[in-house]
Amino acid sequence: MDMRWFRVPKDIVFGEGTLEYLSSLEGKKATLVTGGSSMKRFGFLDEAKAQLEKAGMEVSIVDGVEPNPSVKTVLRGAKAMQEFQPDWIVAIGGGSALDAAKIMWVFYEYPESKFEDLVAFKFPELRTKAKFVAIPSTSGTASEITAFSVITDTENHIKYPLVSYEITPDIAILDSRLPAKMPAHITANVGMDVMTHAIEAYVSTTATSYTDPLAMEAIKLTYKQLPEAFKDGENMKARDDMHNASTLAGMAFTNASLGLVHSLAHKIGGEFGITHGLANAILLPYVIEYNKKATDKYKDIEEVLGSSNISETLKEMNKSLNIPTTLKEVTEVEISEEKFLEVLDRMSKNAFEDPCTATNPRESSAEDVKEIYKAAYYGNSAKEI
């Protein structure tokens, strides 16, 4: 029997000002999970707390989730929840905060859980103590809609994509006021994360008639509106469309999975700390060049976007967003040639073994992955790999 699922949160609340929805929740206690200081600085953390208190709940806060959330951070948050015993876990912020909160949820309900089991996709049944609300501040990761979480093992320099429908949020709140505060460079990076999610979901070997329309709509919206949101952060039409595009892409990839772009991005992120969206943006055109031998579905995207070469179109889009077209040009972290070559074999092996590789449209190998990394580092074509 070829049985498949299409699963998303029970409720998706979207539009400007929808943070107010928190006041309608029923419960006694809620824990807010957030990252750095941006949600506090812009007043959204206090607003969320006030709305939960309006619902009659006592509220605790777990903050300080780092950009690449670690196992240590997850366990710290879970311990705080075990002491507070919330009915609701409310994650607000970027994808890192949302991802970390999902796994805190697991360890809150099951303190005896082992991270190694989660890496092996062995998840317990959740919602024995709490339900989960996700409120994204960036239009990119789509963690608010997905069964995915990416957690970093800082000791081994590996990012682990953890996957289970159990960690799909119960409620996603898409308030477009939050991403309107993003700086232009973050808007660009997370926006290209949306494009990568949508394209990889569209060409995935497990794409379906349910996921393809969502992925294609996200591709169209991102191609049209990301440059607008990048140029004018206060353009609320562009912000609304990008926030919705992120969620649409998430609905597609949480049910169709992803491919080699994410496999490579996860592992180079673990090695060098490069921002996930930035890594995806740079790697995407090269992986498409590599994959084109195996699928005709990129032609659908070219037709919709009016492009004769989707790889080149995406490279030009990167340039317009001030995103470098090669890994060696990255400035947010140092990826020196010496260090890159030093870790290349290990990184390639780990990327090939990443779960996202399984649904890539072209069968690959650790050696092929190595050549794609080199093409993306030096700016060479990946067509002949």
Provide an overview of this structure.
This protein has 385 residues and is an alpha/beta fold. It folds into two domains: 11-179, Rossmann fold; 183-378, Dehydroquinate synthase-like, alpha domain (Up-down Bundle), CATH 1.20.1090.10. 49% of the residues lie in helices and 11% in strands. The chain has 14 helices and eight strands. It has helices at 38-41, 44-54, 71-84, 95-109, 115-119, 184-203, 211-231, 236-256, 260-272, 276-291, 297-305, 310-320, 337-352, 366-378, and strands at 11-14, 29-33, 58-62, 88-93, 131-136, 148-153, 158-163, 171-174. The radius of gyration is 20 Å and the shape is globular. The model has no long low-confidence stretch (mean pLDDT 94).
Attribute tags:
385 residues; alpha/beta; Rossmann fold; Dehydroquinate synthase-like, alpha domain; 2 domains; two-stranded antiparallel ribbon; 14 helices; globular
CATH class of the largest domain: Mainly Alpha
Query: How many alpha or pi helices?
Result: 14
Structural class: alpha/beta
Please describe the biggest sheet, giving its number of strands, its sense, and whether it closes into a barrel. Answer: 6 strands, parallel
CATH superfamily of the largest domain: Dehydroquinate synthase-like - alpha domain
Radius of gyration, in angstroms, nearest whole number: 20 Å
- Taken as a percent bin, the fraction of beta residues is 5-15%
| CATH fold descriptor of the largest domain | Dehydroquinate synthase-like, alpha domain
Work out the count of structural domains: 2
Which architecture name of the largest domain does CATH use? Up-down Bundle
Task: Provide mean pLDDT, rounded.
Answer: 94
Query: How many individual β-strands?
Result: 8
Shape, please?
globular
Helix content: 40-55%
User: Order of SSEs, N→C?
Assistant: EEHHEHEHHEEEEHHHHHHHHH
